[in-house]
Automatic annotation (TrEMBL):
Catalytic activity, reaction form: 2 GTP = 3',3'-c-di-GMP + 2 diphosphate
Span list, region Disordered: 233-260
Residue span(s) of domain GGDEF: 84-219
Superkingdom as given in the UniProt entry: Bacteria
PROSITE patterns in the cross-refs: GGDEF
Family matches, as Gene3D superfamilies: 3.30.70.270
Name of the protein in its database record: diguanylate cyclase
Xref: NCBIfam families: GGDEF
Enzyme Commission number(s) of this protein: 2.7.7.65
Pfam family, one: GGDEF
Amino acid sequence: MTGSPAHQSVFLRDLRLSTAHTLVTQSGAPGLVLPNETPTHYLQAVIDGLCELSLRDPLTGLANRRHFRTVLEREIDRMARSGEAALLLMLDIDHFKKINDTHGHIAGDIVLQSVARTLHSCVRPMDTLARYGGEEFAIVLPSCQAAFGRSIAERIREAVESTVVRVSPALDLHVSVSIGGAYALQWIRSTTQLWIERADNQLYQAKSAGRNRISIEEQPDSTVSAEEKSMLFGSSYPPLHGEDPSAVTGGKSVGPSNGL
């Protein structure tokens, strides 16, 4: 067998990095134009910058759909291990097409950027906020208990509604969002597609109910009542023919002793 191929050095002058350099520099990545950078550090900075760009929406700077789905998969795995609840919110800007048709697409872009900033101010560092597509956004909230989900969504809705969007010196707009939410089910191994579909269904219900409101899916009750436990594990079932009664009751007497 032959040995492994000899290591070959790569010279920066042999690479076509001008476009990549421009993209990363315009994105605000530091360290690319410093004269004391070594070729290795420079090339690594370009690669890291391009990776970052591939995960970001260019208009709002939020996570894009590719990154969002990766986070969802990671969150499902984490929840399966820890058992902690996780909430997915899907948000849609109400009557966004009318904004574009009336004021133009530049005004629409300004509205998207404004809503993105407002949403960013409402989430925790541990949350993931993404532009899902068009005028739709998504938020993944790890470790979010059912008791707090509705209040969080309502706080986000109110924040967007109360924010004035300055489109031009002569034009201010007020926009609202509809919000749908669904929890990842702790006792069922879910999928990203199913989780998104459930949250999207709630978003559709919020919009159908009049927009500028929230709809959070009620969590199914996975607890077992005392009566159900008794039926499953207690003495409600008589012993089978020839079966030791203690096998049904765990070795404990279930009736009064007759002294025999």
